[in-house]
Design brief:
The protein is mostly beta strands. About 5% of the residues lie in helices and about 50% in strands. It has two domains: about 1-110, Immunoglobulins (Immunoglobulin-like), CATH 2.60.40; about 120-205, Immunoglobulins (Immunoglobulin-like), CATH 2.60.40.10.
């Protein structure tokens, strides 16, 4: 371990070898995804070591970050991470020490549930017909090509001056057009984006037909 720590400390002196590779060079994952893997290979060296954020991979890093390292063959090793938010925005280095010191660096991003959809707006399309629209929250492009946003959970409840609230109703959709003939209804909407990590934060908007002059 002292030997490895010494080489990690002096990595800045050396360039990147033309033969060492880290695949993929960067990885974007969701906290709801499966195990994340980087594969390092160097046909000119039989000794490979990994570091995370500049630190050698000790037992503490393995335990807290869910890290495992495996030797696949004489020229290739693999480091895997559990899709934990603690692993968001970390650097992964693979280095070889024989016959010379070389390194290659990658970046791991792990995204959790999404922020609330932005700017929910209710537009009147025609008498008795309205449309609810919103802006998509920020999301990273996932390396595994899973959809960044799986859909939106849109819920609404209705309240009138002459009755109690109607129970909340929800659906998974990307747009919502609705029609209610009772202009006295007060409509309360909530919108949340869904990604592989789960359901994100909620945006709220209320539609009051009487206040809008419908």
């Amino acid at each position: 371990m002292i030997f490895l720590t010494f080489y990690v400390a002096i990595l800045g002196i050396y360039g990147t070898s033309g033969t060492i590779q880290l695949i993929p060079p960067n990885y974007n994952a969701s906290s709801g995804s499966s195990v994340i893997s980087f594969v390092c290979s160097d046909p000119e060296s039989s000794s490979r070591f990994f570091s995370v954020n500049g630190a050698s991979v000790d037992q503490a890093i393995q335990d807290t970050r869910g890290v495992a390292i495996n030797t696949l063959n004489s020229t290739t090793s693999r480091i895997t991470f559990q899709p934990l938010l603690i692993n968001n925005n970390i650097t992964v280095n693979c280095l070889t020490v024989l016959p010379e010191i070389n390194q290659v660096e990658g970046v791991l991003l792990v995204q959790g549930t999404l922020s609330a959809p932005s700017d929910p707006v209710i537009s009147v399309l025609s008498p008795g017909q309205q449309q609810l629209s919103w802006g998509a929250p920020f999301t990273i492009d996932l390396t595994d090509q899973d959809p960044d946003i799986l859909g939106y959970r849109v819920c609404y409840s209705m309240t009138s001056s002459s009755s109690s609230s109607i129970p909340m109703q929800c659906s998974i959709t990307s747009t919502l057009t609705y029609s209610f003939l009772n202009v006295r209804l007060l409509l309360n909407f909530s919108i949340a984006a869904i990604n592989p990590a789960g359901e994100g934060n909620i945006s709220y908007v209320t539609h009051s037909p009487c206040a809008s002059g419908e």
